[in-house]
Amino acid sequence: MTDPQIALMMLGIFIACVFLGFPIAFTLMALGIFFGYYAYYDPSRMWRAFNRLTDDAGWWESTRLWIEGFYNNRIFDLFVNQTYTVISNEVLTAIPLFLFMGYIVERANIVDKLFGTLAVATRNVPGSLGVAALITCALFATATGIVGAVVTLMGLLALPQMLKMRYDHSFATGMICAGGTLGILIHPSIMLNVFAADSGTTIVRLYAGALLPGFTLVALYLIYIVGRSLLQPSLAPKPTKEELPEIPFGQMMWLLGTSFLPLALLIFAVLGSILFGLATPTEAASIGALGGIVLAVAYRAMTFERLRESVYLTVRTTAMVCWLFVGSYTFSAVFSYLGGEHVIKDFVESLSLTPIQFLILAQLIIFLLGWPLEWSEIIIIFVPIFLPLLPLFGIDPLFFGVLVALNLQTSFLTPPMAMSAYYLKGIAPPQIKLTEIFSGSLPYVAMVFFCMVLMYVYPNIVFMLPDAIYGPSAR
């Protein structure tokens, strides 16, 4: 077999291992080292000292030099270098701080106050609880960037209220699942940080580019909830005064000031300091982590147990992301060295695709990968396969990254993975069926596709804000 054929076999074995359920990070590292040992195998260099031994050399000396020669393969040097590259990556340094901010805010008891206030403030809007739930999801997702936390917490807070007020099961669960997934699109999205580290895209431009598409998607969701509530009132009955009493305007302002305003200020402090160049993402993440602690203390929700749990979850998630990167970097380096990248590039060139056709094909593949895989595996392992092809078609990595972030919304909503649905099912009352959650999520998948079409037709939705703040980029 030729080296490129071995590279394709390497990729095929990896995909098979993923479907068999092997741990992704360790599978990548194992395959990278195994095939890398073959790729960098050079016996004349590896066993140079062993081959120089004289006949009177002892058994111990011979064995020691042979073992040293066995480990004198360049793949081990590559593995150490890739590990150091990941650990010293400045973009990835912000991830644990953003994670810590999210876990602290989740435990600050601010979300339940925010949802209750918005539910009362929007009581006269059709589908008021749905509107309140989605706005809360968007704000909470913006503050945390953690999908599981948003879906789980909103499922515990909002779903019982909506069921109590006779909301349709599919309608209620779909909006919570869709709202929770916004965390991977709107800053401080961990996914955007990972994509920036993969692609070399400027992280601040990526944050700015994702804002308008993110808010466009939120607007589409809100229009759908209000519109369907108007057309089919039985799906979201209007609450009575006994179920959701009216409160004086002054009291409403006080409630908004003590629930909505603190979270909004934290988001603005973090996002604004990055977008306007006042701080690097890592420095802004530090501000956010400190702000999350201040909020938890202010709401009297800070305990040693909650702090310990937040630190533990932060370390666990950070370790997972780092090992995925180490495995991915090692795997992709060996794959490229064997010529696999050139095989894929030559194949795509032979298709004679236009830029739009390539974008559609790439997004279709990513959408299909979202069925069995999680976003982290897609971004770290498969998206880098497409990145070297972007200059060939004149596609800006910023535009491609925001498209991928939008597309991966669907990976949380479409079975068989549909992690948002499983998060919600895990804490939902027994009468809620998984099929109802899936059917309620499908309209939001259609809206994600519609938002992607808008980006294809009007790419300035992505470029307008980065160009206005930082000036036009060469593309």
Description:
By secondary structure, the chain is an all-alpha fold. The chain has 24 helices and no strands. The protein has one domain (92-302, 339-470). Helix 7 packs antiparallel against helix 16 (304-337), helix 9 runs antiparallel to helix 10 and helix 10 (147-164) packs antiparallel against helix 11 (169-180).
Query: How many β-strand runs?
Result: 0
Tally of structural domains: 1
Helix fraction by DSSP (H/I, runs of at least 4): over 70%
Largest sheet: none
**What is the approximate shape?**
elongated
Low-confidence stretches: none
Q: Strand pairing plus helix content: what structural class?
A: mainly alpha
The pLDDT mean sits at 85
Task: Draw up the topology in text.
Elements: H1 3-20, H2 24-39, H3 43-46, H4 48-51, H5 59-70, H6 74-87, H7 90-106, H8 110-121, H9 128-144, H10 147-164, H11 169-180, H12 190-199, H13 203-231, H14 249-275, H15 281-298, H16 304-337, H17 340-350, H18 355-369, H19 375-386, H20 390-393, H21 397-407, H22 419-427, H23 434-457, H24 460-470
